[in-house]
Amino acid sequence: MRGLFTAGILDAFMERGFYFPKVVGISAGALQGLSYISRQPGRNVSVNIRFAPDKRYMGLRHLVRDGSYFNFRFMFGKLAHEYVPFNYDKFEKASETLYVGITDCLTGKPVFVSSKSCPLSEFMGVCVASCSIPLLSKPVKLEGKEYVDGGVGMPLVPFPEDLPFPCTKPVYILTRDITYRKKKVPHGFKSLMRAAYGRTYPAVVEGMCSIPERYNEKVEKIIQMEKEGKVFVLRPESPVKVSRVEKDTKKLRALYEEGYQIGMKRFDEMMRWMSEK
Hints:
Blueprint: H1 3-15, E1 22-26, H2 28-37, H3 43-51, H4 60-66, H5 72-83, H6 88-93, E2 97-104, E3 110-114, H7 120-130, E4 140-142, E5 145-149, H8 150-153, E6 171-173, H9 187-197, H10 202-209, H11 211-227, E7 232-234, H12 249-275
Parallel strand pairs: 1-2, 6-7
Antiparallel strand pairs: 2-3, 2-5, 4-5
Helix pairs in contact: 1-2, 1-12, 3-12, 9-10
GO molecular function: hydrolase activity
Active site: 27 (nucleophile), 149 (proton acceptor)
Protein name: Patatin family protein
């Protein structure tokens, strides 16, 4: 649910009429990217504020019944077609490309799939896979192979050299403030991961259990790259108190508004940076 910070920034960009030609979304970022490419400002915040408390949206009963805490069938079904319609036509006709990161269960490595590389119905399955957090969601099968959340293979964001296209001016939207660092994975979590995936997908176990170290290393490198002017970073200005499965709509609204304000405030600075040689 921390993706609402990203939604706020992207809504600010849409209000300014600005669209990146290439967008990368990993995990919840994939969902934010969908409504950005389809040119639907306000859609993501509407979905989350309206449905976060709704039992159809997420909850333990969905985990027990369908294998996923988040009810993707509802999100990409009735919600996207009736309640808060997704503009499939605009998305398909957009000149911009969305690349979504997923993690190969066998290798533990990230794979990027382009919105231009497959039919939209299949691409939506890729987005579901990118949000399928191990233990909270079952792996998603795509063309005979199983995948999980893109953040397992690619914590935080990809560096320029890891992107599926050349990029000399990367803009990163992070959902944690500059002081945030992940704590080491507790022993109990490692045991749970081994029990759930150890026999079938040991690479997923290794990936999940090493996320804190890889994430924290990336944070330090991004801070250094930012100082050197190699990347432009948009992030919250204070610690975020919103959980992954947050249902408090006041907290969600505040996080979205913070993203929107930062997006508006730093837009001109970002455009100047992007125009520099």
